[in-house]
Amino acid sequence: MKRSLLSLIFLCSIFANAQETGENSLGTWHMYFGTNKISDRFSIHTEGQLRYFEQADNFNQLLLRTGLNYHLNPNAIATMGYGYITTDGSFEEFPDETNTKEHRIFEQLILKNKVWEFLFEHRYRLEQRFLDFGDATDTQHRARYRLQVTLPLTDVFFLNFYDEIFLNLQDEVFGQNRLYAALGINVTHNLSVQAGYLKNHFSTANFDRLQIGVTYNPDLRGIFKKNDSGS
Predict the structure, then answer these.
(1) Residue 22 pLDDT > 50, yes or no?
(2) What is the pLDDT of residues 79-110, one digit of tens each?
(3) Close Cβ partners of 193 (under 8 Å, ≥ 6 residues apart)
(4) How many whole angstroms separate alpha carbon 73 and alpha carbon 192?
(5) Distance in angstroms (rounded) separating the CA atoms of residues 7 and 14
(6) Where residue 80 sits, what CATH number does that domain have?
């Protein structure tokens, strides 16, 4: 409990001191997340994101990610997965900038706990990144930690906040920091929508992003049990 309270105080202080400097364009991220139970212990993670430098315009990045989750208990999930990312790292006014394609392997641990009405989620992730710049390739390694706090307002509405830091395991240690706040709606018991704001801070730039996220978690255990019984 003490760790979670200290984490919440730390998160609030970051929001209070967040700088508003950065790139001039207000971009958007359109996101889908899914956790699909296939047994009592295992589930499949699915994810797709389209990121733009401007409002649904001027393509920045496509991210596709999947993984196999192992549920150690209701408050702990271990994951191993794969991601494919293609990035245009420049505004369209700079066509000579190099684009990047990336294959990524990641290992992840999520720990959850509750303090009063606050739902805390600690996500620890390691990434092995295989980058293709067209005329050159590179392999990089990165560690990430995300503290997420969710506050239910009613059975339908909730607030969601997180801060995530990216640490490179080679060259300059600091990679980026993401600060996020959103209002969410539980449409059904396994479908929710969030609309929020992200401050994405790098060493040399800050980006302001609006985010629209859909989370859909259908339970597939019935389908897999039918397949098992018919085999």
Answers:
(1) no
(2) 999 999 999 877 665 555 567 899 999 999 99
(3) 184, 185, 187, 212, 213, 214, 215
(4) 23
(5) 11
(6) 2.40.160.40
Place of tokens 């706990």: 113
Q: Give the domain extent around 214.
A: 2-230
Tokens at 30, concatenated: 């359109």
CB 210 within 8 A of CB 50: no
Query: Is 51's pLDDT higher than 90?
Result: yes
pTM metric for this prediction: 0.85
DSSP the chain: -HHHHHHHHHHHHHHHH----S-SSEEEEEEEEEEEESSSSEEEEEEEEEEEEETTEEEEEEEEEEEEEEEEETTEEEEEEEEEEEEE-S-TT-TTSPEEEEEEEEEEEEEEEEETTEEEEEEEEEEEEEEE-SS-EEEEEEEEEEEEEEEESSSSEEEEEEEEEEEESSSSSEEEEEEEEEEEEEEETTEEEEEEEEEEEESS-EEEEEEEEEEE----HHHHHHHHHH-
